[in-house]
């Protein structure tokens, strides 16, 4: 009996979304490796770090099924023995340093096979003068790389939407890759894989998708819908039953829904609750709460992190106002996702959110 | 004099370069180029402290972790200790134990990844030790030549140990579970059992792979020393002659005693002390142990891109303005000094301040009863590449064992209320307060200072490990540790395979799997490096910077960590 649906380019991301990427990666591991191996030419990967903390690289090293060693060694080009996707440039793990590293980027990546060059960017893009590599501003490195890249993947909250470097008062004028591309006139789609840091499954699947030509379906913020199509709180939170019964955590260590302590699940789209982290063992809400790192505008729109979101989403069609009154007294009322308006404790005073 | 620049320096965290001025020495065997003066170029500025100002003090736990994705956990811990201090709360024993477990596991990951992924490749090449050279020839290379077997195992093991961090912290990098006065996670049998099972596997890896790998490198040391000495006609003792600094070592201490936490806090209050009831002690070693006090810390900016008015200040008084194009400045890092002197921080500083110059780490795995002893006599009391690596290995063993012991001790607290009564609920923040956290990240001493006014951050400052080690010259023109460590380093005019062949001329490597027959070490490396375009590895012009870059990496640089802006 064949339990696995057939893996094709057309249904690659669709299946990943349908099954959840974790199950997909496990079920289809050998098919992914095989499909990618059938690509007969070396794929060029250029992993650039701007205003980054390297957390996304470290997160990538937590990848399993396939893991980093498999990615670097087992998925080889034909019979060459060469890994299909050993980065031509990746500061944190690359053997080469200095002028050789820069030369490889020019010779191997920039002049690599057209159609097979993937640019991965970690970290935000700042105004000139705050980040230099080999004596050249990061902006110039990124612009050059962006111009020849065939696919661009921005990983983590900083490269996608600016992240903490771009938080108020944004002292270095930091921004995400898409915004930078607009500024310098590079008209290329950027696949945004946010979260802080990037989830290794999201990245591995996206790279695999790009290589076999299965273009991910993106949402309005450039995120693959397969991973960022679900509302954490409404659709997948295991603590949701507590919320529905009005059992809230108010002191560290208590059992209950984390809404009152400031959980940003209600205004966050990600599949963390299904996928979990570090070989699928846990995720933020299991030990504390969601701080909303998959969303544009993070952290400013989501901090103070311990302040509850200003409103409650509707619950199972029940009138949120009544429910909110019932559960939280005068705590909050009104549906506000991504701050249209928010009702504050008085119930009367309203203020605009960004 | 020539100028040799390494930029970017890879296999570290962040954007670092080094500029070296050379001089030539002539011996009976020829004229050789060595480093005369070195300058550590720190090339990224993000402005974290400006961003923290005005926020909820508790946000600092989440935000400062994002200073560095390689060492986020220590920033979180230090931020929380600063808040504990500001709140005036003592975390209960169960919370201290859980923090110790989380961070103990985290350290094991960090020291492993540095040993194998970051500095390991150069050591493996220098010592003709294939398991530590990256698996550049794929599975076939691992099988036929043993290339990268430890490297590959490390990737798997660091992933397993990070599961333990995630169990207690939600995820890694960037965990979520610490809160002023305690933890937001409960001690459960499930978590304890998972921790013990994962750490037992880790313990075996450390004992059976990591320690033997270190000893394999060390066993080649005499050979390296003799070959280089006779080639250059100099007195070169081996890896302990690479990367010596001033012999001053600073540690803030790690892993407090859960039954005696108030003693731990006294150093945060400003007292002089050793934190002697902690697993790793605080101290300022300058040839002999000295008590540590944070009052002796100052930061200097003469060569840093900040306004000169802010130089020589204690962190609680910091006022600095970035000046992008400051004449003469070559660094975004500041130069912190202790008692006006240059101190090295990091694993070696921790070991020396805790155990002196002779270490005997006796450990027993509390799960299966296996015992192991690690002994090390510091080879260079002023610090060296090999001593720094050995310190990491020693701590990996020590922390892996202690993490299990703490997990077992935690069982006795499972039924206690872990919530500290002084924190009524998640809505509480003190109106006005200040606090200091003093901890050690894997790369060294870490300080967070927070000042709260009207329930918001009024001032937040970090003095981080890499500013101590990688910072530039100070106002007294004293080179920083790495700048000092590079002085006198040989820059051979030979590529890596040629050096490897000079060190190991014998043809004894069976490369028949690659159609080559039996070849020498350098030729085998050339086979691995050529298809990747890496034969010219570490060549800057005619100079080979392998030794220099290995010295820099031995400090485990973290540039994102080291660069920020302080504002009062």
TrEMBL record, chain A:
Domain NADH:ubiquinone oxidoreductase-like 20kDa subunit per the UniProt entry, residue ranges: 53-209
Domain called Cytochrome-c3 hydrogenase C-terminal: residue spans: 228-306
Keywords, ordered alphabetically: 3Fe-4S, 4Fe-4S, Iron, Iron-sulfur, Metal-binding, Oxidoreductase, Signal
Needed cofactors: [3Fe-4S] cluster; [4Fe-4S] cluster
GO cellular component terms, A-Z: [Ni-Fe] hydrogenase complex; ferredoxin hydrogenase complex; membrane
Chain positions recorded as [4Fe-4S] cluster 1 binding sites: 53, 56, 158, 196
InterPro entries (alphabetical): Cytochrome-c3_hydrogenase_C (IPR027394), NADH_UbQ_OxRdtase-like_20kDa (IPR006137), NiFe-Hase_small_C_sf (IPR037148), NiFe_Hase_small_N_sf (IPR037024), NiFe_hydrogenase_ssu (IPR001821), TAT_signal (IPR006311), TAT_signal_bac_arc (IPR019546)
Keyword Signal in record: yes
Binding site for [3Fe-4S] cluster: 272, 290, 293
A Gene Ontology biological process term: anaerobic respiration
Residues given in the record as [4Fe-4S] cluster 2 binding sites: 233, 237, 257, 263
NCBIfam families in the cross-refs: hydA, TAT_signal_seq
PANTHER family, alphabetized: HYDROGENASE-2 SMALL CHAIN (PTHR30013:SF7), NIFE / NIFESE HYDROGENASE SMALL SUBUNIT FAMILY MEMBER (PTHR30013)
Family membership noted in the UniProt record: Belongs to the [NiFe]/[NiFeSe] hydrogenase small subunit family.
Name assigned to this protein: Methanophenazine-reducing hydrogenase, small subunit
From TrEMBL, chain B:
PROSITE patterns per record: NI_HGENASE_L_2
One Pfam family of this chain: NiFeSe_Hases
Matches recorded under InterPro entries: Ni-dep_hyd_lsu, Ni-dep_hyd_lsu_Ni_BS, NiFe-Hase_large, NiFe/NiFeSe_hydrgnase_LSU
Binding site for Ni(2+): 68, 71, 558
Annotated Fe cation binding sites: 71, 561
Chain positions recorded as Mg(2+) binding sites: 49, 564
Cofactor(s) needed: Fe cation; Ni(2+)
Annotated compartments: Cell envelope
Annotated keywords: Iron, Magnesium, Metal-binding, Nickel, Oxidoreductase
Gene Ontology molecular function terms on file: ferredoxin hydrogenase activity; nickel cation binding
Recorded family membership: Belongs to the [NiFe]/[NiFeSe] hydrogenase large subunit family.
Protein name: Ni,Fe-hydrogenase I large subunit
Source species: Archaeoglobus sulfaticallidus PM70-1
Lineage, broadest ranks: Archaea, Methanobacteriati, Methanobacteriota, Archaeoglobi, Archaeoglobales
């Amino acid at each position: 009996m064949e339990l696995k649906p057939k893996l094709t380019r057309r249904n690659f991301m669709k299946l990943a979304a349908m099954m959840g990427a974790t199950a997909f990666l496990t079920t289809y591991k050998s098919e992914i490796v095989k499909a990618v191996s059938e690509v007969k030419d070396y794929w060029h990967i250029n992993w650039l770090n701007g205003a980054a903390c390297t957390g996304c690289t470290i997160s990538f090293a937590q990848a399993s099924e396939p893991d980093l060693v498999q990615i670097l060694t087992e998925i080889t080009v034909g019979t060459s023995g060469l890994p299909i996707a050993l980065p031509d440039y990746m500061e944190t793990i690359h053997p080469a340093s200095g002028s050789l590293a820069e030369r490889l980027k020019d010779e191997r990546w920039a002049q690599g096979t057209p159609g097979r060059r993937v640019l991965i960017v970690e970290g935000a893009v700042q105004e000139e003068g705050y980040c230099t590599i080999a004596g050249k501003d990061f902006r110039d490195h990124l612009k050059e790389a962006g111009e020849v890249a065939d696919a661009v993947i921005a990983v983590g909250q900083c490269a996608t939407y600016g992240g903490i470097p771009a938080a108020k008062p944004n002292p270095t004028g930091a921004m995400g890759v898409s915004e930078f591309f607009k500024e310098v006139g590079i008209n290329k789609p950027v696949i945004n894989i946010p979260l802080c840091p990037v989830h290794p499954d999201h990245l591995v699947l996206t790279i695999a998708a790009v290589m076999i030509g299965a273009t991910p379906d993106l949402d309005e913020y450039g995120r693959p819908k397969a991973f960022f199509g679900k509302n954490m709180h409404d659709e997948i939170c295991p603590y949701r039953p507590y919320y529905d019964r009005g059992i809230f955590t108010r002191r560290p260590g208590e059992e209950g829904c984390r809404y009152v302590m400031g959980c940003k699940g209600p205004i966050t789209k990600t599949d963390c609750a299904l996928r979990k982290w570090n070989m699928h063992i846990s995720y933020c809400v299991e030990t504390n709460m969601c701080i909303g790192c998959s969303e544009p505008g993070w952290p400013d729109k989501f901090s103070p992190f311990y302040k509850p979101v200003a409103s409650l989403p509707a619950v199972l069609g029940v009138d949120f106002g009544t429910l909110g009154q019932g559960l939280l007294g005068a705590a909050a009322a009104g549906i506000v996702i991504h701050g249209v308006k928010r009702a504050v404790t008085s119930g009367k005073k309203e203020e605009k959110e960004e | 004099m020539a100028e040799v620049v390494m930029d970017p320096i890879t296999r570290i965290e962040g954007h670092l370069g080094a500029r070296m001025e050379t001089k030539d020495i002539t011996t009976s065997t020829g004229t050789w180029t060595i480093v005369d003066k070195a300058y550590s170029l720190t090339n990224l500025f993000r402005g974290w402290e400006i961003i923290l100002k005005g926020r909820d003090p508790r946000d600092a736990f989440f935000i400062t972790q994002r200073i560095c994705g390689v060492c986020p956990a220590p920033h979180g811990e230090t931020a929380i200790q600063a808040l504990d201090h500001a709140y005036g709360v003592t975390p209960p024993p169960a919370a201290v134990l859980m923090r110790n477990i989380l961070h103990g596991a985290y350290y094991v990951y960090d020291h492993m990844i540095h040993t194998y992924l970051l500095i390991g490749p150069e050591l493996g090449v220098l010592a003709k030790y294939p398991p530590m050279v990256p698996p550049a020839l794929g599975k076939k290379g691992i099988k036929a030549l043993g290339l990268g077997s430890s490297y590959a195992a490390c990737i798997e093991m660091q992933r397993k140990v990070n599961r333990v961090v995630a169990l207690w912290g939600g995820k890694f990098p960037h965990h979520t579970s610490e809160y002023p006065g305690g933890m937001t996670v409960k001690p459960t049998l499930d978590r304890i059992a998972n921790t013990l099972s994962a750490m037992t596997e880790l313990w075996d890896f450390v004992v059976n792979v990591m320690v033997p790998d270190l000893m394999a490198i060390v066993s080649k040391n005499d050979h390296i020393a003799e070959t280089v000495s006779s080639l250059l006609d100099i007195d070169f003792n081996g890896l302990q002659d690479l990367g010596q600094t001033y012999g001053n070592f600073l540690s803030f201490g790690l892993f407090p005693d859960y039954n005696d936490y108030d003693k731990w806090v006294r150093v945060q209050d400003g007292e002089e002390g050793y934190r002697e009831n902690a697993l790793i002690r605080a101290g300022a070693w300058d040839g002999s142990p000295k008590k540590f006090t944070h009052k002796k810390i100052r930061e200097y900016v003469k060569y840093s891109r900040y306004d000169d008015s802010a130089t020589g200040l204690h962190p609680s008084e910091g006022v600095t303005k970035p000046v992008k194009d400051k004449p003469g400045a070559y660094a975004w890092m500041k130069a912190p000094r202790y008692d006006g002197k240059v101190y090295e921080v990091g694993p070696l500083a921790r070991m020396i301040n805790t155990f002196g110059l002779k270490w005997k780490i006796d450990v027993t795995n509390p799960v299966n009863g296996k015992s192991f002893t690690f002994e090390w006599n510091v080879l260079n009391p002023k610090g060296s590449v090999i001593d720094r690596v050995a310190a990491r290995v020693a701590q990996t063993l020590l922390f892996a064992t202690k993490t299990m012991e703490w997990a077992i001790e935690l069982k006795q607290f499972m039924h206690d209320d872990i919530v500290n009564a002084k924190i009524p609920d998640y809505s509480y923040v003190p109106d006005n307060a200040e606090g200091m956290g003093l901890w050690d990240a894997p790369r060294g001493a870490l300080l967070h200072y927070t000042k709260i006014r009207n329930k918001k951050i009024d001032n937040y400052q970090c003095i981080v490990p890499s500013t101590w080690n990688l910072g530039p010259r100070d106002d007294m023109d004293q080179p920083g540790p790495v700048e000092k460590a590079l002085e006198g380093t040989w820059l051979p005019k030979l590529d890596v395979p040629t050096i490897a062949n000079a060190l190991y001329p014998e043809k004894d490597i069976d490369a028949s799997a690659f159609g080559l027959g039996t070849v020498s070490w350098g030729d085998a490396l050339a086979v691995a490096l050529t298809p990747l375009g890496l034969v010219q590895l570490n060549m800057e012009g005619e100079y080979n910077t392998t030794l220099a870059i290995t010295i820099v990496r031995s400090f485990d640089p973290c540039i994102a960590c080291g660069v920020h802006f302080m504002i009062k």
